[in-house]
Amino acid sequence: MEAWSPTPVPRIPGAPGELRLFDTATQTLRTSAPEGVATMYVCGITPYDATHLGHAATYIAFDILQRVWRDSGIAVRYVQNVTDVDDPLLERASHTGENWMALAQREIALFREDMSALRVLPPDEYVGAVESVLEITEAIEQLLTVGAAYRVEEDIYFDISYAKDFGYESNYDRPTMLKLFAERGGDPDHAGKRDPLDSLLWRGVRPGEPFWDTPLGPGRPGWHIECSVIALNRLGMGFDVQGGGSDLIFPHHENSAAHGEVLKGGHPFAKQYVRLVDDITRAASEYADDVRAGRFPEVANPAASRRS
Known about the structure:
Layout: E1 20-23, E2 28-31, E3 37-42, H1 53-71, E4 75-82, H2 87-96, H3 100-117, E5 125-128, H4 133-146, E6 149-152, E7 155-158, H5 174-183, E8 200-204, E9 219-221, H6 223-235, E10 239-245, H7 249-264, E11 270-276, H8 279-292, H9 302-306
Parallel strand pairs: 3-4, 3-10, 4-5, 10-11
Antiparallel strand pairs: 1-2, 6-7, 7-8, 8-9
Helix pairs in contact: 1-8, 4-6, 6-7
């Protein structure tokens, strides 16, 4: 998938200062001074609606991070995904009667336009879930082979007991994890799961939903494994920064890290877990939660909501 056009990066006079980032896993400010090439993965959009201020705040923040690295003379390799098949997208398409692929392509195009207008540097690789289905299924097969994944009828789940440090990235206690898991797309009460917090790796085919015929059976990938595989296959284990909004701390980034660490048998998935936390991102998170729950805010003039 193509990103957007790059923008010139001006030289800033003077010596760069020390860069410190707040790491969610250690709950501390830590110096960031990668040796050689700095590697960063930032979770991208699920293209079910127009980009908003929460997206702008997130991607500008990580744009500043890579500009500081570059200003220090450090080369940067940056990867971002697009979750171009997932429940919120399919639910919105069903709600509006639009083809889900057409909806995704339109919103991805709008996102590119907005990032260009904000002069955000494009990622080196901009990767969609749809184009990654083969590599995701291969990773799920590997998890099944080692016993870290199991089937519940046509679905496949990740067994969190295989992630010995599960919870280290978010630092949440189990009641908090269960609450957030239920609120943010998880299914803690699904019958047949070994643990309520086990996350979906592969969703078996459902009537009216898109699917791929694979050795796993017909279906589509889960959300968390998508980012694990895209990051690992392009940056390798232990890349410098995994970034995103504060709403992704759990369950998304916790599970992405757990999947990756079990797949590679190593630790940590990323050296630093950096989240943007502000009121705009929280508002955007609440809106996303509404969409996942099927509560679609009514817009009197949809065209006006696209651009001010």
